[in-house]
Write a structure and sequence with these properties.
about 130 residues, alpha+beta, 3-stranded antiparallel beta sheet, two-stranded antiparallel ribbon, about 20% strand
Length: about 130
C-alpha cells in the first residue's frame, strides 16, 4: 500500500476528507521524526514503539577486495511492534466491539477442571 492509498483508507475510516486525512498523516509522521531526532521514544500502546538505536562502529570485510573496512557508528530508527499489532497481523486478534454497560450478573462458582492425562509422545515422522 502506497502513501496515497493509506491516506484514502484513513479518510474513509475516520469519515473525513482526503485533504484532512493527508494533513493528519503528514503531521503524525513529522512528529514521530522530530521526536526521534530529539532522542526520545514514541510509544503507541497496542501498536508499537518507535525509537533510535545506536549501532557501534564495526569491522567488516569487503566482498570485492577482501580487505577489512571500518563502518562508522550510526543512529538508526527502529520500530518494535506491540502485542495487539502482532496479534492482528498473525490473525489471532479479535476486533474490539463496543459493549453497552449491562448490570453484572452473579456468576456461578467455578468448578475445578479434571486433570488431563499426560499424552504419550509419538515418534517423529520420517521425511
Amino acid at each position: 500500500m502506497q502513501k496515497t492509498e493509506f491516506i484514502e483508507h484513513v479518510a474513509k475510516h475516520a469519515g473525513v476528507t482526503k485533504t484532512e486525512a493527508d494533513k493528519v498523516v503528514r503531521a503524525t509522521l513529522e512528529v514521530i521524526k522530530e521526536t526521534l531526532a530529539g532522542g526520545d521514544k514514541v510509544t503507541l500502546v497496542g501498536f508499537g514503539s518507535f525509537e533510535v538505536r545506536n549501532r557501534g562502529e564495526r569491522q567488516v570485510t569487503s566482498i570485492r577486495t577482501k580487505q577489512k573496512v571500518t563502518v562508522p557508528a550510526a543512529k538508526l530508527p527502529a520500530f518494535s511492534a506491540g502485542l495487539d499489532f502482532k496479534k492482528a497481523v498473525s490473525g489471532k486478534a479479535t476486533t474490539p466491539v463496543a459493549k453497552a454497560a449491562a448490570p453484572a450478573a452473579k456468576a456461578a462458582p467455578a468448578k475445578a477442571a479434571p486433570a488431563k492425562a499426560a499424552a504419550a509422545k509419538k515418534p517423529a515422522a520420517k521425511k
